Amino acid sequence: MSEETTQSAPMKIAVFGTRKYDQDSLKAANDAAGNPLEFTFIEALLDPMTTILAAGHIGVCLFVNDICDSAVLEHLHSLGVRFIALRCAGFNNVDLKAAARLGIKVARVPSYSPEAVAEFCVGMIMTVVRKYHKAYNRVREGNFLLDGLLGFNLHGKTIGIIGTGKIGLLTGRILSRGFNANVIAYDPYPNRAAAEEYGIEYVEKLDDLLGTSDIISLHCPLMESTSYIISDSTIPKMKKGVVLINTSRGGLIDTYALIRGLKSGHIAAVGLDVYERESSYFFADSSSKVIDDDTFARLLSFYNVFMTGHQAFLTTEALTNIADTTVLNLVDLQATGTCACILEASA
Ligand code: NAD
C-alpha cells in the first residue's frame, strides 16, 4: 500500500469564536505538525443556537466565552462530536460531568504563557495607580496639566495576591523583586517553596489579606467556591482606598457590590480585564451597538475604572503555545483516547 493510502484523513475540527490571530496561529501549528487537522473557522461563539455548526466535525475547539453546558454537550454528542479542545486554561464554561457522562473527552491548555498575564497585570496596576490612560488622552489633546494624575509608589506598599498558581506567583515575583513591594498572598493550597523564592509571604486567612492590602489582585480560577469572592461581605473588610485588579475571571466579582464600593469611595480604583457578563461584548466590535447591560455601562462610566477586553493573554508567545498544545491535544486524543492536558470531571 502506498504511503498516501495509509495516511488517515485529517480530523475535522470546528473552531468557534475565532479571530484572525487565532486562525493564523492554529494554521501555523497544524502545518508544523503535518496537517493532522482540518479546521472550520467559525466567528460565532458556541451556544445553543450555533451548536449545529459543529455537524460533520469530530471535535470542537473553544475559548473562554463559548457556552458548553449539558444541553449544548448533548447536542454536540448527537452531531458526532467526541473531542473538545479548549484554547484556554480556565474551564468553568464546560460542564465536565455532562461531558464525562456522554463520553466526550475535554482537554485544555493549562499553561500557555503565565508571563503574558502576569506582565499585563502589573501593567494594569501601573496604569490604574499612575493613570497612564488619562495622561495619554490628555497629552494627545495638548493638555499638559498634571492635576488629577497624582499616583503613589508601589515600593513599600502591601499588595495582596489571591490565588498563587502560575500567574499569581509570577505577578507576585515581579512586584516583590521588581518594585520591592510587600507582597502577601492567600491560597488554600499554598506553594510555599516558590513563594519564598519569589519574596511572597502567605497569610493564613483571606480576611488577613483583605484587611492589610493597598492593592488586591485576583488570580484564582472561577469555581463555585470562588464565585463572587469579592462581594458586599468582603469589600467592607478591605482597607479604605484599596485598588482592585482582576485579570482572572469576571465572575469572581459581584459587579453590583463593586459599584457600591466605588460609589462610597471605599474602593479607590479598579483595573479589570474581565467582566462577569463579558460574553455579550468582548472579542467583538461593539462600538456601534448600544450597551444594554446597564451594570456594565455604569462600570465603564467611572473615572477610576480602567477596563480592557480580556486581553491579558494576547501575546505572540501565548498564541503559539496555545495553538501547538491544542493541535497536540487533539491528535493525542484521537490516537490514544487521552492526552497530557485532559480534564477529568472531578478536576
Ligand atoms: P492555576 O490553576 O495555576 O492557579 C490557580 C490558583 O488559585 C491555585 O493555586 C489554587 O489553589 C488557587 N485557588 C483556588 N481556590 C482559591 C481560593 N478560594 N482562594 C485563593 N486561591 C484559590 O491558574 P493560573 O494559570 O495561575 O490562572 C489563574 C486564572 O487566570 C485562571 O483560572 C484564569 O481564569 C485566569 N486567566 C486569565 C487570562 C486573561 O487573559 N485575562 C489568561 C489566562 C488565565
UniProtKB/TrEMBL annotation:
<keyword id="KW-0520">NAD</keyword>
<feature type="domain" description="D-isomer specific 2-hydroxyacid dehydrogenase catalytic">
    <location>
        <begin position="15"/>
        <end position="339"/>
    </location>
</feature>
<dbReference type="Pfam" id="PF00389">
    <property type="entry name" value="2-Hacid_dh"/>
</dbReference>
<dbReference type="InterPro" id="IPR029752">
    <property type="entry name" value="D-isomer_DH_CS1"/>
</dbReference>
<dbReference type="Pfam" id="PF02826">
    <property type="entry name" value="2-Hacid_dh_C"/>
</dbReference>
<dbReference type="InterPro" id="IPR036291">
    <property type="entry name" value="NAD(P)-bd_dom_sf"/>
</dbReference>
<dbReference type="InterPro" id="IPR006140">
    <property type="entry name" value="D-isomer_DH_NAD-bd"/>
</dbReference>
<dbReference type="GO" id="GO:0008720">
    <property type="term" value="F:D-lactate dehydrogenase (NAD+) activity"/>
</dbReference>
<dbReference type="InterPro" id="IPR029753">
    <property type="entry name" value="D-isomer_DH_CS"/>
</dbReference>
<protein>
    <submittedName>
        <fullName>D-lactate dehydrogenase</fullName>
    </submittedName>
</protein>
<keyword id="KW-0560">Oxidoreductase</keyword>
<feature type="domain" description="D-isomer specific 2-hydroxyacid dehydrogenase NAD-binding">
    <location>
        <begin position="122"/>
        <end position="312"/>
    </location>
</feature>
<dbReference type="GO" id="GO:0051287">
    <property type="term" value="F:NAD binding"/>
</dbReference>
<dbReference type="InterPro" id="IPR006139">
    <property type="entry name" value="D-isomer_2_OHA_DH_cat_dom"/>
</dbReference>
<comment type="similarity">
    <text>Belongs to the D-isomer specific 2-hydroxyacid dehydrogenase family.</text>
</comment>
<dbReference type="InterPro" id="IPR058205">
    <property type="entry name" value="D-LDH-like"/>
</dbReference>
